[in-house]
Amino acid sequence: MKLSDIIRSELRALFGSKSPAAVLLFGIPILYSIFFGCAYSSNVVKYVPTVIYDQDQTTASRTLIQAYIDSEKYEVVAQVRTQEELEQLLHENKALVAVSIPPKFAQNIKLGMASEILIQTNSTNVMFANAAISSSQEIIQTFSAATGQKLLEALNQMPAQALHTAAPVKLGIRILNNPTIAYTNFMLPGLVANGLQIAILLVAGTLIVKEYGNLSRWQGTSSTTIVIGKLLPCWLCAIGSFLAYLAVIILFFNVSYRGGVFFDLFFLGAAFTFLVVSISLFFSAIVRNEVEALQMPLLYIMPGLLYSGLSWPAWAMGDFARVFSAFMPLTYMADSLRDLLLAGYSPALLQNILIMFAGGSVLNLITMLVFNHRRKKLRFKTVKEAAL
């Protein structure tokens, strides 16, 4: 057979009416382009939740606060009266940036004394931490230059000279939870979690569908028992894999770990692996063959890394992206995992664990019903063919 004959044969196979190959080859990149484009459509991180603590309450401090309100980088969610209120909002992740204006702010400026604005930022996600630091520097520099110029002009100095000789406001930065802004701490736990869910899909993806071709194997056993029997061993092994990969990244790659959160991590990993195994069994129950049982879950799960909020914050996504992310397992796991490792707590931990266990339970129920229905249908077909 000539090379040209082989090429024509393969092209017919790719573009034949019964072949999904061409649809997959062209459709998936286009589909992912749309998905990823929607997630990154805002181009930059905007509207970072911000809390203001104004201890001066003067025209100067209110002018500075207005600069933050006017900036599209920030969304001022609260102006508090005490340091305790500020710390609480940061602790609960209701605010990711805090701006503290010290007492005697305006007075010190008038006296020519340096006055420091303190910016506190949660750096579990370095995306908005870097955005907050750079934009705060611009705001403070602009405010400081304008204020210093007016101050020295009042002393009869020329504007150009005044602008270059005074900068009465300084910026202090306090980076919380990931003070070195280490990229390993930021990305590695979630990336490996993505690898774990792919591994689970590859292992559990064929567990149900292969039983359709061997109905006599578990004859007399209920569909519920079979599904649970498939679920439990895979789930327990997946939990072990989760704990093993955590040990590796903590011991060998120096990912930050706060003591006292082992059980939080354990239940988070248990809920995540339960949901992913349940998704795998669901797809395995509804597909036609083992090839589809591996392909379909992977097509579904691959955008999850981006939409999880691991790299690009969920609140910076568009409406479509936020809705789509609600169906991704990593959405309920990645941020909580990073918060536990870096900060020692996660405000949304219990909620995320409950969502994952509830979602997995519903999927397992559907899997049992689908598996039972298809088993009965195939048995009836087999009996009918035998009678003929």
UniProtKB/TrEMBL annotation:
Family: Belongs to the ABC-2 integral membrane protein family.
Keywords assigned: Cell membrane, Membrane, Transmembrane, Transmembrane helix, Transport
Gene this chain is encoded by: ybhR_1
Signal peptide: none
InterPro entries: ABC-2_transporter_component, ABC2_TM, ABC2_TM_bact-type
Protein's UniProt name: Inner membrane transport permease YbhR
Domain (ABC transmembrane type-2) ranges: 145-374
Organism: Sporomusa sphaeroides DSM 2875
Compartments, record wording: Cell membrane
Domain of life of the organism encoding this protein: Bacteria
